[in-house]
Structure formats: C-alpha cells, structure tokens
Amino acid sequence: MKFKLLILNLVLCLSSYAQEANVTLSGSIFGAETNMLFISQMYDNNQVKDFDSIVMDKDGKFSKNIVLPREDYYLLRLGKFTVHLVCRNHADIKIYGDGKKLNTFCNILNSDESAAMNSFAKVVEGFQLKNDSAVKAIKENPEQRKVVNEYMQKEYFSFQNDLKIFLGSNQNSAAIVMGLSAINYEQDPKSYESVINQLNKSFPQSLTVQKYVQNYQKIKAEKEQNKPLGIGKEAPDFTEFMVDRKNSITLSDLRGKVVLIDFWASWCGPCRRENPNVVRTYNKYKDKGFTIMSVSLDKDLEKWKKAIKDDQLIWPNHVSDLGGWQSKVSRLYQVGSVPFTVLIDREGKVIKTNLRGTALDTTLEKIFN
C-alpha cells in the first residue's frame, strides 16, 4: 500500500475571500547544503507551489514574517527535505534541526499540531520503506513471498496500532490529517468519518480540510445511493402472512404513513430489550401518521405470538413466514443481524436504516413537528 503524506487535493487559485495568515517562521538549521528555505504546498498532481522563501545566514539561523493566502497546511522545504506546518493566523513557529537529516532530527516549538504531524510522518515513512522493501524482495525472490508477507502482516498491525495511538492522542487536532491517508475508508468508514468530523471542527478555515470534507460527503452520498436500501430509494415491496396465518398484508398497503419496518424475533435479547422503546415511539406518533411493520425471524408460531403479547406490541402489522434467517423478507432486505430497522416515508422511500431509541425519536420529531 502507498501512503502520500498530506496530499492537498486543491485548485491552484485560492478563494478571494479567504482570510490571510500572518505567520512568523524562525529558528536554526545547521549543516544544510543550501541556505534557501521555501514555504510551499504540494498538490495531487505532484506540483509544488511556492508562496515565499527564506534565506538562512551562515550559521543556519533565520527569521521572517510571511503573509500566506490563508490558514492551511504548508510545507517548509529545504532541498529534498520537507517539514509539515499547520499555519494559523498570527502563528509564531520555531524550527530547529539538522540540515543533513531534517526529516529525522527536527524540533518544532509553538505549534504542537505541526510537531505531532511530523512525528507521525516519520512513522508513516518508516512503514512505507518496509513495505517498498518487501515488494522488492518478493519481486526478486518469489519463493520468499510467504515469509515476507508474514513479516509485513506483523508490521502492518504494528503500524495500525501506532495510527490508533496517534489519532487518540491528537483528538480534535488539525494534526490528524496526517493519519487520514492511512485509513481504509472501505474497511473502516467510522474511523474515517471520525477524523473528517474532527478536522472540520478543529480547522474548518483550511481549504485542505474543506476539500477533504467535500470529497468525503460526495463519496458517502454515492455509496448511500448504491445501497439496496439507500436513502431516497423505494423500499422493496412485499406481501406476507400475519399472525393468524390466514390474512396477509402488503407493505405498500401502508402508503400515506411513515412506516418503521422492524426486523426482530422472540429469541433475540437485544430486540426484546428495545421493544419498550419501540412501543413508546409508536404511542407517541401513531396519531400523527406513523405506524410499524414488524417482521419476525421466528420459526415457532407460539413463541412469536407470546412475545407480541408479553411485550405489548399493540400495532396490527405483524408478519412472518416463520422461516427464521431464511425468511423471504429478511433476505429481500439483506438483514444480517437483528434488531434492524428501515424507516420509510409516506411514498415508501427510505429515510434511514437502523434507527433505534433516541435516534429514531429525534428523526420522527423532525418529520412530524
């Protein structure tokens, strides 16, 4: 896997209304092969845009007040080395380091966010070097694939632990953008969303953060639309037998009402514990146009009937084919666990899935009030 450190997926022209960032950069970098420092940003096409430069004296000391287009993430470039900086307005950042090993030996003062970013950048670079070496080793010696893969699996788990510690230690900090590219959105969407939300809270004026948020929202919306039960999609219609085993009901018969399709079972402990909340919700909104379609994954008719009575599930719409996990409706809705709910609007379109308790009540309150 490849990690790109702080890719700024931005357009080159910055918003005209953006607030400028007045930043002071000073410090000392000894032993450098050049006396020129550049304040830059790198974009997703590997283009570098320099905003200003600093000339160090013969001892490597420097100090300069710089006006940047806006508060954002920037790079301090020295030859082949880069230092990641979080540049907020009126920041006074001091940088001390070894010009021959700046990526390894660099001390940043007055900007904990920048210091944390560079610290984790070393971790990412270290893992990337190991990963690149592993790919090369397998290419040169295919027979070593198993051994190398086992080694890299351990290294990957170690890296993921480092990532977890970094994110946990820098909550609500602009620094955690450095961990974003190391999170697989497909495998861990919750962590990815958590980082996006924290960045949007901690550094909303950053154009980089704004672009990350926009891209995430776009991806999330596209994935939601591609789901069988995506928001705005029409819920699959079905007809199923009711408790008396003689009469049946069709979901579309309930058009005109807001319907909670509630998948549950008498043997499901979490379902039974949730039922009092479902009953309270039904009683609160039933006169406003809300009802429930309970779909049971039971196999035993008597146990199903007893649970309905014991839990006082007083709405009339109870259905099941007594097929358990193989029931037609649960397979139609791709139910993987219970309790599972689908809230649909008066036209039969999905509002949201898996709403329970307070979340369900809050959503219905917005609809009916």
**How many H/I helices?**
9
Shape: elongated
Helix percent reads: 25-40%
CATH topology tier name of the largest domain: Glutaredoxin
How many domains?
A: 3
Largest sheet: spatial strand order: 13-12-11-14-15
CATH class of the largest domain reads Alpha Beta
Through-space gap between termini: 49 Å
Structural class: alpha+beta
Number of strands: 15
- Kindly report the average pLDDT value: 93
Work out the strand percent. 15-25%
How large, in whole angstroms, is the Cα Rg?
Answer: 28 Å
**SSE order, one letter for each helix or strand:** EEEEEEEEHHHHHEEEHEHEHEEH
Please mark out the parts with pLDDT under 50 across 5 or more consecutive residues, or reply none.
1-17
Q: What's the CATH architecture name of the largest domain?
A: 3-Layer(aba) Sandwich
Question: What does this protein look like?
Answer:
By secondary structure, the protein is an alpha+beta fold. The chain folds into three domains: 21-122, Immunoglobulin-like; 124-226, no CATH class; 239-368, Glutaredoxin (3-Layer(aba) Sandwich), CATH 3.40.30. Helices cover 37% and strands 24% of the residues. It is built from nine helices and 15 strands. The strands form four sheets. It has a five-stranded mixed beta sheet with strand order 13-12-11-14-15, covered by helices on one side. Strands 4-1-7-8 form a four-stranded mixed beta sheet, with helices on one face. It has a four-stranded antiparallel beta sheet with strand order 3-2-5-6. A hairpin with a 7-residue loop joins strand 7 (92-98) and strand 8. Helix 1 packs antiparallel against helix 2, helix 4 (189-202) packs antiparallel against helix 5 (207-226) and helix 6 (269-285) packs parallel to helix 9. Mean pLDDT is 93; it is low at 1-17.
